[in-house]
Amino acid sequence: MENLLSVPIKNDIYYIGTNDRETPLFEGMWPLPNGVCYNSYLIKGEKNIIIDLVRANTTTDYVNKIKEIIGDEKIDYIIINHMEPDHTSSIGSILEIYPDVKIVTNKKAIALLDAYYHVEDNIIEVKEGETLKLGDREFTFYMTPMVHWPESMVTYEEKTKTLFSQDIFGGFGTLDGGIFDDEVEYDRFYLEETTRYFINIVGKYAGQALKALNKLGGLDIELICPVHGPVWRDNPEKIIDIYTSLAKQETIDGCVVIYGSMYGNTKVMAEAVARGLSEGGLKNIKLRDISKTSLSYLLSDIWRYRGVILGSCSYDNNLFPPMEYLLTEISHQRMKNNIWGIFGSYSWSGGALKNLKKYMEDGKYNVLDTQLEIKGTANHDELESLIDFGREMANEILNK
Ligand code: FEO
């Protein structure tokens, strides 16, 4: 049968993933301006095997792809590497079409299958390092807890040296025609979306991600089939290196200045600081208005740039609420390789700088001693101080 909807990969492994350009927010909170894909794989053979499913809203496309490959044959097994509903919520429809299918997964996922979908029957449990023969194919399973959920695992086929890596090595963005790493301009588009995905979704589990990457480092891998983003057949080392760098929280020479401003005074201060960063020799500078920028992009910038400067106006004796929310999220991310800077606008009550300082002290952050607080609109001398502060941060970043 011709492959018009699905894409052959190799040795009877087919790409049957789907694109989602309708859902505005991943997990209900991370913007998807470029959509997201839910990758799934079908192995046709003595037994027909699916590895990872798709989200329910794309089931129609999905079933058409399956049918294109196997026609009226049945699916014998579904291997579930990860239970998050973007990869499992089509299961009800699939079980209606293929009621005798056996599900292969681990103990933690079995509990979640029951909890989420009330599926309890026809399940084969696999354990860490176990090899299972399904028809003429043989798979080995490795647990990768917390990357991204506690039940997450990966599936490796030694014969084809293929790693079905679930969320690991994934990224945001639909696959618009090109499926493989050698069919897309990865650095132009997917690199940014992979970085944001890693930091938003996996970032707080970076330690576990590193452990998982070390564990997988012993495998001979020629093909990586993740559940989001391109399939890696040409240069799988590249995505392994990108993920390893992200998991290690390696930072680049640059600074993000995030400000919260009600009437523009804190914004002017932030721009003076940014001018100082530039005068200090820094070229990679980003200014972010916290009121207009999704947490998704703020966290992504903070993770990547060595320098982070937070400037907040005071709001009813306290921090600007969006800044308070950002600080709460930063503490969940456990970032460890940044140099921090803070400044505040006093308004009529103060409160911003006082709370930024407390947050930095409580979290034992590496923060610069210069911490400016300005009443109302910055005057000439205060603008000079803010520019000097930017220069100081640039020196810290570049001399490190
Ligand atoms: Fe793509 Fe953690 O699900």
Automatic annotation (TrEMBL):
It comes from Peptoniphilus ovalis. PANTHER family: ANAEROBIC NITRIC OXIDE REDUCTASE FLAVORUBREDOXIN (PTHR43717). Residues 255-394 form the Flavodoxin-like domain. It comes from the Bacteria. This is FprA family A-type flavoprotein. In the N-terminal section; belongs to the zinc metallo-hydrolase group 3 family. Pfam families: Flavodoxin_1, ODP.
